[in-house]
Amino acid sequence: MIEPQQRYLAPKSGTAVFNRIVAALTRAGISVMGSRVLAVRGRTSGQWRTTPVNLLQVEGERYLVAPRGHTQWVRNLRAAGTGELRLGRRVETFTAVELDDDEKLPILREYLRKWAWEVGAFFEDLDKDSPDDALRAAAPGFPAFRLR
Fold it and tell me: Name one GO molecular function term (predicted).
């Protein structure tokens, strides 16, 4: 079993195709259930790196959750502390604050409520109705950021 702090699920071929479609629509200005293109400077190259993400809004706050774990965009965002959300020609610069594991519980639950159809496989046996203890145990494997 992979330790939650090291959890990373590489994208499969079907995921790559789906991500390309969502990214193309988002770049054209069509948001698919809150999708944005995340742009973050690479932590070693300094070059912009982009990936489609689901922008989650909970009680007036905005969040990014990494359902595949400690991905490259997560590592880059930790290093940069800032990035851009793009939708069509609109570009919004933000700063990110990574959430503590206990802060993630309501965010993970809402993320699963909204996007389980898309990302549920990455959460294995968890769903929006999972007990707090199960979400708390899994939380280290799902980085999440509050955007400002």
Answer: oxidoreductase activity
Q: Which of 40, 46, 39 is nearest to 86 (CA)?
A: 39
Total structural domains within the chain: 1
Which pLDDT value is given to residue 2? Answer: 46
- Residue 134, domain member (yes or no): yes
Among 63, 79, 61, 59, CA closest to 71: 79
> Residue 5: phi, psi to the nearest 5?
-70, -20
What are the CA-CA distances from residue 27 to residues 2, 39, 120 (Å)?
Answer: 34, 12, 25
* Contacting residues for 107 by C-beta, under 8 A, at least 6 apart: 56, 58, 63, 65, 99, 144
Convert the pLDDT of each residue in 82-126 to its tens digit. 999 999 999 999 999 999 999 999 999 999 999 999 898 899 899
Give the domain extent around 77.
11-147
